[in-house]
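Record type: monomer structure entry
Structure origin: computed from sequence
Chain ID: A
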Amino acid sequence: MTLSGNQKRKMRSAARLYAVQALFQMEQSEQTVDQIRVEFMEHRFGASYEGDEMTEGDPDHFTRVMEDAVNYQAPIDQMTDRGLVAKWPIARIDPTIRALFRAAGAELRDSSTPPKVVITEYVDVARAFFPDGKEPSFVNAVLDHMAREARPEAF
């Protein structure tokens, strides 16, 4: 079965949401990246919760974001710290937002996705977690700063 471009985009978007959830869970539970990856791919991708079917995630994209977020966590966190205009250390940031910055930072390191797409996608993830809050605007500002540092040639 071949997927349309729109289906592939939806699966990558779902993989980003799952990556943020997985990174959050890793930090809270002290499970390894491999344990979390298996759990998400076997039990979360395409699962049904209370009658709502979850979107199937792109397993390759999910794996790459997870592994890069873990392998490059220190430089990603440092880049995030430089992007935090309020000069809050990343440790004081909400753990969901911290996981989001790590996933987005992993994608910003990889030049296969344009930085503006990464920003838009992760602001959408922030909206999914914080539909009524100021967090999406905060995420947008920090990711814009991170993207300009990571990939200045794209701006």
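Annotation 1: Strands lie at 48-49, 52-53.
Annotation 2: The chain has a mean pLDDT of 90.
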